[in-house]
Amino acid sequence: MPLRRNKPLKRKKPLQRKVCIVSSRSNLGVSSEETRKAIPKFSKKRAANNKIYSRIRNIFLTLFCFCEAKLPGCTTKATDIHHKRGRGIYLLIIRFFLPVCRSCHDQIGVKSKEAIENGLSESRYRVRFSYLQKFDDRTVLVLLQNKHNLLIIN
């Protein structure tokens, strides 16, 4: 019967990957250990967008300093920006910004279905009606979803 632990094992130091490199200078082939370069937290493109976003955020919160969600427990001073469609490709689009206080922002995150129903948030995967178009004597309903166009022929 295998032994069971009451508590999981905890690492005292973070795990570091080490690479064994053979030194070209040594004739004996003695190896020296070096740690690998850390993976960056953000890509270069995302880091550039984050710089722009931080400037936009500061300006936006000075212009819109009151919470627009007004949920129970609201402090009325906007300290956060809620991204109605998520950050991803919508990070710099002000149309999807909503100035909110911290408590309202937490509630929007927890109760996302209610937030969508109240207009405080939008579904990222929602298909929305765009337009009707005539094409070879047929009416084509064009739907837009994120970056892709979907065609449905009636």
What does this structure look like?
This protein is an alpha+beta fold. Among the domains are: 44-117; 125-154, no CATH class. Helices cover 23% and strands 26% of the residues. The protein has helices at 44-63, 102-110, 112-117, and strands spanning 18-22, 31-35, 80-83, 97-100, 128-135, 138-145, 148-153. It has a 3-stranded antiparallel β-sheet, with no helix packed on it. Strands 1-2 form a two-stranded antiparallel sheet. A two-stranded antiparallel sheet has the order 3-4. A hairpin with an 8-residue loop joins strand 1 (18-22) and strand 2 (31-35). 11% of the residues are buried. Residues 129-133 and 139-154 have low confidence and may be disordered.
Give a summary of the structure in a few sentences.
This protein is an alpha+beta fold and 154 residues long. It has helices spanning 44-63, 102-110, 112-117, and strands at 18-22, 31-35, 80-83, 97-100, 128-135, 138-145, 148-153.
